[in-house]
Amino acid sequence: MPNKKITIEQLRPGMYIADLGADWMEHPFVRNQFAVDDEATIRKIAASGIRAVYIDPTKGLDVADAPTEHEVRKEIEAELFRVAAEEAPRKKIPIAEEMGRAQKVQGEANKIIHNIMNDIRLGKQVQVEAVEPVVERLTESILRNSGALLSLCRVKSKDDYTFQHSVSVCALLVAFCRAAGLDHETIHLAGVGGLLHDIGKVKIPDEILNKPGRFTDAEFLLMKNHVVESKKILDVTPGISEISIQVAHEHHERHDGSGYAQGLKGEEISLMGRMAAICDVYDAITSNRVYHTGLAPHEALRKIFEWSKFHFDPVLVQQFVRAIGIYPVGTMVELESGRIGIVLEQSEASLLQPLVKVFYDSRRGQYIPPVPVDLAKPMGQGGADKIVGHATPEKWGIDASRFML
């Protein structure tokens, strides 16, 4: 029997939770799957801002008329594809031309945020003038071809996660703001906020910040306090803007008021806080960590789209989908023909028909000569194929990164 989705009001002792339906950093439970033993557990789940969960009827009580996970997924994906089909991406330079510059600016940004956090530990102030030039270069890269930098940002090392996550949120927020049509100055200030959004984590003890497992309740409360510490640091930073502070202080607020640290709701949260919240969660759930394997971009977008009913501004989530695409550059996909490839470019015709470099035949279980396939073109011109789903490198034993360019 498949898993089913139920509301928190339908949850009862004796049920078995198969998925809490929330980002790991947004709830205090040791596991994402467990039996519900008592009403106290249900109250704790509700207090975490979780409004719906998936249950496993084979391991606990059932709700007869609850939709199955497959039914929910099918409905959400249909809506996702509708949103993605509404708008084609803007013209840009080829990714191969931008990749070198994107690698350089990513390295510069990682170094800058690393140095800034070290300075704060030594009691120094944030030097905004050191941040602004790299944010400007990062923005220019996004404007030329956002796929280059965003694809690089998905690769992180566990030792440098905090710094790399800051750079990724910066890049995602810049791309998001650009797609939303915001002016250049606002985009720049948002980027500064994105790069500094987790600056308060320097006040969290390393043994908690780098803990490989779940937090205790006390550790969880301390970890959540990083947004308060971020605001304290930025409030005394010369030259910092209110927009940048909003990004840092409000990126854990939630649309239904269940977030932290202020418990703001709806438009009480600034536009930049609402946008940053989406970028922060998207990067967190697509990243590999010690305690979980990152989701594929398509799966992460589906999760965020599902959570947008309560946690995120639904209109902004739709704009975010259009900003980064259903199949971002670097995504490994399986085609209807059975071929597997990696997305090289978003198509100017449709977000659902990118340029894909195919290199593996799943039906024969073997590599094939790499060849680009423009899914936006008709039969006879390199097209006449379509994406049927995401392909995981682990399933096929493939290193897709070597086929990126």
Quickly give the structural class. Answer: alpha+beta
Unreliable runs: none
CATH topology of the largest domain: Hypothetical protein af1432
Number of domains: 3
Characterize the main sheet. Answer: 5 strands, antiparallel
Distance between the termini: 43 Å
How would you characterize the overall build of this protein?
45% of the residues lie in helices and 11% in strands. With 405 residues, it is α+β, with helices and mostly antiparallel strands. The protein folds into 3 domains: 4-67, no CATH class; 95-324, Hypothetical protein af1432 (Orthogonal Bundle); 332-403, no CATH class. The strands form 2 sheets. A 5-stranded antiparallel beta sheet has the order 8-7-6-5-9, with no helix packed on it. Strands 1-4-2-3 form a 4-stranded antiparallel beta sheet, covered by helices on one side. Helix 4 packs across helix 5. The radius of gyration is 21 Å and the shape is globular. The model has no long low-confidence stretch (mean pLDDT 88).
